[in-house]
Specification:
The protein has 307 residues and is α/β, with parallel strands linked by helices. It contains 11 helices and 12 strands. α2 links the parallel β1 and β2.
């Protein structure tokens, strides 16, 4: 009798094994990637198509790309469970994390060429504008990128206020360009005098540095660095994470982590396309890296009041 029970139990385990081996594929039938780019949707989709194909091959399930017109669109989409993964700036991640009550978590963070995980916000003006410093820009117009951008709004706005240069009072006009690329183009087209954007701050300035919006615009032949002048630079800002929904299966999270850690070595062209430049690769991200940005978002939401 005991032998029969043991055989029956073994048979049951054998039947259950294939189902258990499927893991995340049992529940996740499609993987959706949200895209934020500060560029037109066609360029955004084209730049990420090989990334989509790679994810689809590695995950073994259909993968779709969902571009957004602004940061808020992707923040809302991942919070509502409409996408599983998105690359955020630090402020966008912090905002989404707070808005959806911690429903997302950081997966990986980009490393610069020296292994650091920081970048900078910079303000640029036309080289022929006569604006050579931030003080020269007093009474001029300023283009922020997007209200949910770290380097394109949160950090420069907070930093300038701390320096006694409240943008709303220091500049004659302040507005949002709709993205980083749009902001720099607005300066080149004399629609704004100054725009803020992001850069690694490493590498050759004539190439727009190693990574960031300036580099991407130089590569797309939308910008010659001789036509602009950097008039201000922030302190170090943590690179934004590739973030995922916290409720994804553990085996899917591990798979995604390994894909991204391997990306610079196994698929360097895809890595450079999605990162818009070069760097060392990715490191596993932790929530601690974004604690200060989360606190800054909370303070901004309450007008600086402490709850």
């Amino acid at each position: 009798m005991l032998r029969k029970l043991m055989l029956a139990a073994a048979a049951a385990l054998a039947l259950a094994a294939p189902a258990a081996a499927q893991g995340y594929k049992d529940t996740v039938k499609e993987f959706r990637v949200g895209l934020i780019g500060g560029e037109n949707a066609t360029d955004l989709l084209t730049r990420n198509e090989d990334y989509r194909k790679l994810l689809e091959t590695e995950l073994g399930i259909p993968v779709k790309l969902y571009p957004a017109t602004d940061y808020a669109g992707i923040m809302q989409a991942i919070g509502a469970g409409q996408v599983e993964l998105a690359a955020f700036g630090a402020s966008g991640f912090a905002g989404a994390y707070l808005d959806c009550n911690k429903c997302i978590e950081p997966l990986v963070v980009a490393e610069e060429n020296d292994g650091s995980t920081f970048y900078y916000s910079v303000a640029v003006a036309r080289a022929d504008s006569g604006i050579n410093s931030l003080d020269d820009a007093k009474g001029k117009s300023l283009a922020f990128a997007d209200p949910n951008s770290t380097s394109g709004y949160l950090i420069p706005n907070a930093t300038l206020k701390a320096e006694g240069k409240d943008p709303e009072k220091f500049f004659s006009r302040v507005g949002f360009a709709g993205g980083h690329e749009q902001g720099v183009l607005a300066v080149l087209n004399k629609q704004y005098d100054v725009a803020v954007t992001w850069t690694s701050g490493q590498g050759d300035i004539n190439e727009g540095y190693s990574r960031g919006n300036l580099r991407a615009m130089v590569d797309k032949k939308l910008l010659d660095m001789k036509d602009v002048k950097i008039i201000w630079q922030s302190g170090k800002i943590p690179n934004g994470p590739v973030a995922i929904r916290a409720d994804l299966p553990a085996d899917l999270k591990e798979k995604l982590l390994q894909i991204h850690l391997d990306l610079p070595v196994k698929h360097p062209a895809i890595y450079q396309a999605i990162e818009r430049g070069t760097g060392k690769g990715y490191a596993k991200a932790t929530l601690e890296l974004y604690e200060d940005i989360i606190k800054l978002r909370q303070a901004e939401a309450t007008g600086g009041r402490k709850n």
